[in-house]
Amino acid sequence: MKVLVIDDSNTIRRSAEIFLKQGGHEVVLAEDGFDALAKVNDYAPDLIFCDILMPRLDGYQTCAIIKRNAKFASVPVVMLSSKDGVFDKARGRMVGSQEYLTKPFTKDQLLQTVKQFGAKEGVM
């Protein structure tokens, strides 16, 4: 699967990249929402992990913009946050995210999430 990881933390991007590549996935990294929008268009990922708290364009705004584009509306978006709040999860669902992963995540949690969406999409 081709996975886009959007996070302003270099550490989170790098660890997600390592875990996903170990799981056999192709990885594209973006450091903020604007960077991500260009990469979604260029790489057409199968799954997107999107941090909530980012400068300039936050994760909710980024997800909403991606979901408004008919070409990418069906691409699953998983919100990433260090907060595990009910409000954050609800707000994520309102903008179109399918899942929520709390940081820091483990390799198993990340790969399990990818597997969950790969099975739904028929991609592995």
From TrEMBL:
Give the Pfam families listed for this entry. Response_reg
Among the GO biological process terms of this entry, one is:
phosphorelay signal transduction system
Q: Which UniProt keywords apply?
A: Phosphoprotein, Two-component regulatory system
Chain positions with 4-aspartylphosphate modification? D51
Q: Where is the Response regulatory domain?
A: 2-118
Which InterPro entries does UniProt cross-reference here?
A: Bact_response_regulator, CheY-like_superfamily, Sig_transdc_resp-reg_receiver
What name does UniProt use for this protein? Response regulator
Organism, by scientific name, is: Ramlibacter lithotrophicus
